[in-house]
């Protein structure tokens, strides 16, 4: 390594001020540390004192008075955490930026050194955060969809019995009136009718609310929808070292669909596929998204994984609400996907993938067919 010496430590001011000159190796000496494109510093192994640092390190850490002593710097970066394990990703309290810390070993002039490289990963952390909030939004949309769906079902189911109750009550009131029946019973029946009418009004408001949120279908480009979804899951896929293969036929016609809803379906299927491949060797983790026009003239999208697949008992329950094999699963994803696709007059299906894994797919009418 470069000729760094004890003198070099003095080049990094121990004050909180930013250094003007490069706080690096001995003057005149060519410093390898300067050639490193990240903040880099060498600390003595024995007493932990800073021996040399490059200019970047000065810019990024000299504002911390603790930078001149390895353990103090680490304690400060850990920001009061009691955990004494070596931190690898830390947030610098003075700048709020995130750094990945890497330690290496070196020897110089008989002295054992610990070489610290601090790589600024703030952008990656920010990207992860915004990705997370986007996912949370989609999850929220999906929850709202299931709430909407439940509300619509309830409203539909309750509407008829309520109407029947009001009719029976009206009939009973007429009979009592004709027979000159007891006034107390008449009052009780009138009160019951008022309550039933109130309940019917509530139900009809719920129906209006759900109707107002009805999906909007239009001509949608499958390539664009797939790109949005894969971009949302890109970081997750990278983290799992997945290979993603997109095989959408170039001549896919636009589909007649509500974009947000179909993206929601695709997101769910791709997420499930990624999760299914968690436990398998990295070399086999391959995800393929296929799109073509099938023999019936529908657009067919297929999400193929190399995951664990499904037993025949699991296949039977797959689309039932609340079926899940995950500890933190809700088991409503596929059920919602199915209602969305059926609403679009398509079909959601599963088939085992040749060579291992699963294929989850769905069909959609193409725009001309659906729009007619
Ligand atoms: P959740 O993901 O909350 O469990 P889903 O309805 O999306 O809910 O999925 C239900 C179940 O279907 C999962 O728990 C899993 O057992 C199974 N499943 C879904 N997709 C796959 C897949 N690609 N490979 C294997 N199993 C899957």
TrEMBL record:
Transmembrane residue ranges: none
Catalytic activity: ATP + protein L-histidine = ADP + protein N-phospho-L-histidine
EC class (word): transferase
EC number from the UniProt entry: 2.7.13.3
Highest taxon of source: Bacteria
Alphabetical UniProt keywords: Kinase, Phosphoprotein, Transferase
Annotated Histidine kinase domain residues: 153-368
CDD domains xref list: HisKA
Gene Ontology MF terms in the entry: kinase activity
Stretches the record annotates as Disordered: 1-24
Alphabetized InterPro entries for the sequence: HATPase_C_sf, HATPase_dom, His_kinase_dom, HisK_dim/P_dom, HisK_dim/P_sf, Sig_transdc_His_kin-like_C
Stated name of the protein: histidine kinase
């Amino acid at each position: 390594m470069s000729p760094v010496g004890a003198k070099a430590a003095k080049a990094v001011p121990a004050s909180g001020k930013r250094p003007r000159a490069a706080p690096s190796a001995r003057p005149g000496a060519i410093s390898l540390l300067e050639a490193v494109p990240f903040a880099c510093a060498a600390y003595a192994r024995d007493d932990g004192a800073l021996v040399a640092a490059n200019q970047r390190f000065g810019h990024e850490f000299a504002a911390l008075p603790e930078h001149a002593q390895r353990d103090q710097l680490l304690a400060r970066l850990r920001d009061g955490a009691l955990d004494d394990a070596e931190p690898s990703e830390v947030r610098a309290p003075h700048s709020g930026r995130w750094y990945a810390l890497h330690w290496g070993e070196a020897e110089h002039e008989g002295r054992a050194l610990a070489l610290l490289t601090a790589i600024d990963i703030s952008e990656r952390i920010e990207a992860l955060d915004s990705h997370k909030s986007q996912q949370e939004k989609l999850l929220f949309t999906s929850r709202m969809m299931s709430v909407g769906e439940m509300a619509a079902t309830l409203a539909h189911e309750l509407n008829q019995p309520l109407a029947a109750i009001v009719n029976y009550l009206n009939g009973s009131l007429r009979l009592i009136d004709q027979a000159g029946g007891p006034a107390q019973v008449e009052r009780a029946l009138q009160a019951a009718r008022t309550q039933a009418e109130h309940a019917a009004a509530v139900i009809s408001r719920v129906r209006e609310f759900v109707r107002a949120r009805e999906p909007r279908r239009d001509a949608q480009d499958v390539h664009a929808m797939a790109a949005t979804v894969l971009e949302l899951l890109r970081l997750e896929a990278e983290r799992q070292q997945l290979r993603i293969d997109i095989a959408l036929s170039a001549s896919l016609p636009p589909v007649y669909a509500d974009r947000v809803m179909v993206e929601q379906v695709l997101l769910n299927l791709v997420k499930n596929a990624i999760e299914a491949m968690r436990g398998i060797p990295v070399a086999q983790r391959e995800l393929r998204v296929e799109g073509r026009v099938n023999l019936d003239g529908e657009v067919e999208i297929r999400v193929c994984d190399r995951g664990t697949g499904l037993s025949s008992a699991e296949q039977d329950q797959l689309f039932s609400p609340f079926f899940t094999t995950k500890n933190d699963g809700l088991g409503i994803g596929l059920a919602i996907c199915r209602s969305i696709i059926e609403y679009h007059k398509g079909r959601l299906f599963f088939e085992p993938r040749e060579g291992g894994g699963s294929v989850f797919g769905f069909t959609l009418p193409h725009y001309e067919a659906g729009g007619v």
